[in-house]
Amino acid sequence: MNNTNLVYEQSRCVAHEIRNHLSICEIYTQIIKKNLEEEGIENNSVNNALNCISKSIKIMCNSLLDLKSLNNISRTVCDARSIIEEGIKLSAVYIHDKDIKITDNINTTAEVYIDENKFLACIVNIIKNAIEAIDTKGEIKISLKKDNQNVYIKISNNGEPISKEKQQSIFEEGYTTKPTGSGLGLHICADNLKAQNAILRLNKSTPEITEFEIILPIYKN
Fold it and tell me: How far apart are CA 55 and CA 47, in angstroms?
């Protein structure tokens, strides 16, 4: 693949990530306006929205750096639990017109060596996909477990399943189950996680549950 094609492919991936997080900013902007009109400036919803917007902007800035480099991974030691909890907070905005409950089973944590913003973007993307798979009402479950070597993050939903014939192509560029989807989301996630020594896989997708799992090594000094 020549340099022109490489830049083109990277630009498409970056544009996809920016679109996802710009939508978060846009939705929360509307929430802020509504709360300012109805309740006043000082309220928890406004504060939470501002915090999420701030984090989303950081993620977007991180993605924009990819336009300058094709190998833009900057890893630091992070707390796995904190990253997941932040991802849940950021993703919750996509539920705005649905009756979806997100439950988590996170009774442990571990230090992991990751690019915080890129890893967080992957968590948000997977949860967003889970929300979109649910028509109007459902549940998303998120768990964090570990052993002596790895951290295991599972994100499941009880929405529309992925057909068996399409499950083999789920991480390929261009794959999508959505009429207006770009087919880049899971492809980007898989590539970004691989660059951080992590694995993204689809464990199962049935009428009862669709479950994705991220496996990554525990950081050891």
Answer: 13
Q: What is the CATH number of the domain that holds 90?
A: 3.30.565.10
Cβ pair 130, 210 in contact under 8 A:
yes
Q: Judge whether 174 and 188 are in contact, CB under 8 Å.
A: no
The strand pairing partners of 112, in sequence order, are: 78
Structural domain range at position 197: 3-217
pLDDT digits 0-9 by tens, 108-145:
999 999 999 889 989 999 999 999 999 999 999 999 99
Give whole-number Cα distances, 129 to 38, 81, 213, in Å: 32, 20, 14
Q: What is the number of domains present in the chain?
A: 1
Angle, CA 201 vertex, CA 145 and CA 195 arms, to 5°: 90
Tens of pLDDT, residue by residue over 26-66, are 788 778 878 787 877 777 777 778 788 877 877 776 666 66
